[in-house]
Specification:
By secondary structure, the chain is mainly α. It is 69% helix and 0% strand.
Length: 403
């Protein structure tokens, strides 16, 4: 998707495998109406939008150059459509938002953008376009979009949106220290703008990031505060993640009753999740259940999640889920079946590009199990550094489904 819009032995086995592997440090705010928009005028511009989007992607830029499409109201509608598509179809969202940023560039050349679209609208379009690229795993083009947005003079709320969107990219890249700083900055900007729901979303993401980094004590106060301000109707995934994040922290402290209560609270949001959100959420719940000692329930969750990860061709995540399940099976007297899990995964991804460290790790898992030296305490510590290492090395991990 091109276009003007985005121009600018004595050692434990898992430790041995990881040794030398470098480790480094959607539903968001709705686009505001940019201009007064009478219903009759809106219908006419909707017709232009539909005409534009009905064409194949490669033909749209030529049509967009026609003078009749040089309407700031069309930019507004493209921004709306792109934002709505981000949650379920980032590829389509990226195509639409690329048209929006391309149109903004054309209007600027005609001297229209400064007075009608303004830096606020252009910044939002670039941030959403960058988010679409992040969700598609195209980090260089995401960087290009955020670089252009970062130089625009915008309000505190728009600064918050920019910082949070860029933080999500840094998180997916494994640059967690930068992601943390950006999320704190975004939270302050939203507080300044009195956008309390958006401030709560930043706090929730900060808590999730600390959980992801193995810092439960830093996560708890953030997740507690966030849970009071999140709108669960608008952001059910984030609400569920808040509950499960708290559950994970309580389980890590040994407070299984509080962990169970937080898990049960999360269940009330499951019916509103997309397929991808549901999959990631149930995987996290399985980890909470395992940490709480509820092994049968945890195994059932991993057994449900793992085939779906394989079906979606998510090798790193399927590897992590295989490790999770192997540890539980081994404790349940099913160690002989672990080799089958590894062979199933290898067969499912045969002939596809893979990551050497994951292959070695899976083989080590099977060997440790067969030799009856599978140490749950050691192996359960593998996922966090491995995930960070893979992100740092540019491996394709599932991007966070937050928009």
């Amino acid at each position: 998707m091109g276009g003007a819009g985005l121009r600018s032995g004595s050692r434990s086995t898992p430790r041995r495998v990881l040794e030398g592997f470098a480790v480094g440090p959607a539903k968001g705010p709705a686009p505001s109406r940019l201009l007064p928009f009478p219903q009759r005028r809106r219908k006419a511009v909707e017709h232009l939008r539909d005409e534009l989007l009905s064409l194949p992607e490669e033909e749209r830029p030529d049509l967009l150059r026609e003078e009749r499409f040089h309407d700031p109201h069309l930019f507004d509608l493209l921004l709306e459509a792109g934002h709505e598509a981000l949650h379920c179809d980032p590829q389509r969202a990226g195509e639409i938002l690329n048209l929006a940023t391309g149109l903004a560039a054309m209007l600027e050349e005609n001297g229209k953008r400064a007075g009608e679209i303004g830096a606020e609208g252009y910044s939002r379009a670039l941030c959403l376009a960058g988010t679409a690229r992040r969700l598609l795993g195209d980090f260089p083009k995401a960087e290009a979009a955020f670089e252009r947005a970062g130089g625009l003079p915008v309000s505190a709320a728009s600064q918050g949106l920019f910082c949070r969107a860029l933080a999500m990219l840094r998180w997916d890249q494994g640059r967690s220290e930068e992601a943390t700083a950006l999320l704190y900055h975004a939270q302050r900007r939203f507080a300044e703008a009195q956008e309390m729901r958006e401030e709560a979303a930043c706090l929730a993401l900060l808590g999730m990031l600390h959980v992801d980094n193995g810092e439960p004590r830093r996560a708890v106060p953030l997740l507690r505060e966030a849970s009071q301000g999140i709108d669960p109707e608008r952001r059910p995934w984030l609400a569920a993640q808040c509950c499960l994040g708290l559950a994970f922290c309580h389980a890590s402290f040994g407070d299984t009753d509080k962990a169970r209560s937080a898990r049960e609270m999360a269940h009330s949001f499951y019916g509103k999740l997309s397929g991808e959100e549901d999959l990631l959420t149930r995987w996290l719940e399985g980890r909470v259940a395992a940490l709480s000692g509820e092994n049968e329930e945890a195994a059932a969750l991993f057994e449900s999640v793992r085939p779906r990860l394989i079906e979606r061709r998510r090798l790193p995540e399927a590897t992590f889920a295989t490790i999770d399940l192997a540890l539980l099976w081994s404790e349940a007297g099913r160690a002989a079946e672990v080799r089958g899990l590894v062979e199933e995964l290898n067969a499912a991804f045969a002939g596809e590009p893979t990551v050497t460290v994951l292959e070695e790790l899976l083989e080590a898992l099977a060997e440790d199990t067969a030799a009856e030296r599978l140490d749950r305490e050691v192996w359960s510590c593998v996922t966090l550094p491995l995930r960070m290492a893979l992100r740092w090395q540019g491996a394709s991990l599932w991007p966070l489904p937050f928009v």
